[in-house]
Write a structure and sequence with these properties.
7-stranded mixed β-sheet, Enolase-like, domain 1, about 30% strand, about 20% helix, single chain, alpha/beta, 11 helices, 5-stranded parallel β-sheet, globular, binds flavin-adenine dinucleotide
Length: about 500
């Protein structure tokens, strides 16, 4: 007879947070500070947690911080009333205010915050030649396979794809994007044109020390491999995630990227299947996008990608960088959550889901409040931190019967990042999202140096893309926030001879 696991007594806690990523950890930290005499339970599938360090408020809405992956004991030492339980949640019984972990332990909560992140949306789930990059383990697996690869195909046009095509050396890269221009999630065709020369330029030497420390704690390697063995779901990687990795393939070459635009993956063939199909694959194009250079490929590859454009390329493996899906599955059974169009748990302006006493923050949630005209949700590191922080504030206010104001960070979308070694600042409706044709763009571009684009509507600034060291972020942030009528300044707004900061002081 199979041995039955002993029935463990349910533990009770006023606050339970699920997920050890940036949203969950930030939420637990704030609850721990607000309620020092309560135990805050942080239940997470991964043995390491993510902590925000060196937080810097760059301007009213722009923030920068480093991320450290730490052993949970470090968090418990910093906040003695946070207790980290390392086990995945397998079931939520919302009516009983209870979660059940993989280890069979039950936890009864008064208030629960779900911060279980998202999973990569793969072009196909069951192909060993298709990789997604999400966490430390998948990034390490990618690095291992890249070291032996001569050619890979990257599918997708978001931040991860952009970073990969720029960073990878020693390997041919076929980059398949469904849009006309690269980086469609973050900028328009003009900015893409500005960035493209960087793909063939020699890269600057990497900095000696990583700008943001990642996998730092002693013993973390051991714990990471243990996590991999258990098939656990780790936290998403974050800013500078690739800096600790060696992204070099098996060939002696620097950048070699060929872009296939306006196409998607139609079919993937394994080697034998491809040979039987008697189809023809193409060699790596020498000059793009000239069709006449498309020659037949003599080489045999482990896997072949057929694009909707009809072209077929062989490669060692495929990276599916086609976005994420909120990780809601473990919490759905028997619970009538309202889900957003993108599959996330919808949250109102108090980060409250559709079920009583359950909040959500970070990649798992879909905001459903009427946003400020210059804010939109994006599944980014900064928003995971902001939402985790604000969710805790709302949970605390609800518990204490106090009112809550919407956090100021939701007034303006603001993100600072790096693409192709340029500083990139995105503000408001930086890509004219949802503005229809009723808007104007103003541009200023100095090749190889800076690219400035502002989105204007009725004389007011609604968004901006700033690439390079433009020093304009604070002024533009203010202009977007105060919605001043700028009609009379016309083109002067971007005239490099005018010190715009003085202008509006
Ligand atoms: P996560 O960090 O995914 O954390 C989820 C946590 O929940 C994990 O600890 C996990 O173990 C736990 N968990 C999952 N399921 C369960 C369960 N059933 N029970 C218990 N625990 C569970 N954003 C940027 O802003 N800038 C970037 O440059 C950037 N680069 C990125 C690069 C990569 C490769 C990836 C994958 C993402 C990148 N992002 C970037 C996005 C950013 O990492 C995410 O938006 C952010 O990490 C989301 O944080 P989170 O706390 O919501 O979720």
């Amino acid at each position: 007879m199979a041995a039955q696991s002993p029935q463990l007594a349910a533990r009770r806690s006023r606050f339970v947070v699920v997920g050890g990523g940036i949203a969950g950890v930030t939420c637990a930290e704030r609850l721990a500070t607000e309620f020092p005499s309560d135990d805050i339970l942080l239940v997470t599938a991964s043995p390491l947690i993510k902590a925000v360090t060196n937080f810097r408020q760059v301007s009213r809405t722009l923030e920068e911080f480093d991320v450290e992956e730490q052993a949970s004991s470090i968090l418990e030492k910093r906040y003695p009333n946070i207790k980290v339980i390392q086990s995945g949640v397998k079931q939520l019984k919302s009516e009983e205010h209870k979660i059940i972990t993989e280890a069979g332990q039950e936890y009864i909560y008064e208030k629960l915050c779900l911060c279980a992140g998202a999973k990569p949306k793969l072009i196909t789930e069951r192909n060993p030649f298709v990789l997604g990059i999400r966490d430390t383990d998948s990034a390490a697996e990618f690095q291992k396979r890249l070291a032996r690869a001569k050619r890979i195909t990257i599918v997708g046009n978001g931040g991860i794809a952009l970073e990969l095509v720029y960073e990878i050396e020693g390997c041919e890269v076929i980059w398949a994007i469904k849009d006309k221009a690269i980086g469609n999630t973050f900028f328009d065709a003009g900015a893409a044109e500005f960035l493209i020369p960087k793909l063939s330029a020699v890269k600057p030497e990497p900095p000696i020390a990583c700008k943001r420390t990642k996998y730092t704690t002693a013993g973390s390697e051991i714990e990471q491999s243990a996590a991999a063995d258990l098939g656990e779901i780790g936290s998403a990687l974050g800013p500078d995630w690739h800096e600790g990795l060696c992204l070099k393939g098996a060939k002696q070459l620097s950048h070699k990227v060929h872009i296939e635009s306006l196409c998607e993956v139609k079919k993937i063939y394994l080697r034998e299947e491809f040979q039987q199909s008697e189809k023809v694959s193409l060699a790596f194009p020498i000059v793009q996008p000239d069709e006449r250079n498309a020659e037949m490929d003599e080489e045999r590859w482990p896997v072949y990608v057929e694009l909707t454009s009809g072209k077929i390329y062989g490669c060692d493996f495929i990276v599916s960088a086609t976005g994420v899906v909120p990780n809601v599955q473990p919490f759905l059974d028997g619970n009538n959550f309202v889900l957003g169009e993108d599959g996330g748990l919808t949250v109102d302006k108090y980060m409250h889901t559709s079920l009583p006493d359950i909040y959500a923050a970070g990649d798992i949630c879909t905001t459903s409040w009427e946003p400020s005209p210059v804010w939109q949700q994006m599944r980014l590191w900064t928003q995971a931190r902001q939402m985790g922080w604000y969710a805790a504030k709302c949970m605390a206010a609800d518990t204490l019967g106090e009112p809550t104001d919407m956090d100021f960070c939701f007034e303006l979308f603001a993100h600072v990042t790096k693409f192709f070694n340029y500083k990139v600042v995105l503000l408001g409706k930086y890509n004219a999202q949802g503005l229809g044709s009723d808007h104007e763009l103003m541009l200023r571009c100095t090749k190889g140096q800076e690219y400035v684009k502002v989105v204007m509507q009725n004389g007011r600034m609604l968004g901006a893309v700033l690439i390079g060291e433009t020093d304009l972020e604070e002024t533009f942030e203010n202009l977007i926030l105060n919605q001043m009528d700028l009609s009379r300044y016309g083109e002067d707004l971007l005239d490099p001879r005018i010190d715009i900061e003085d202008y509006f002081d």
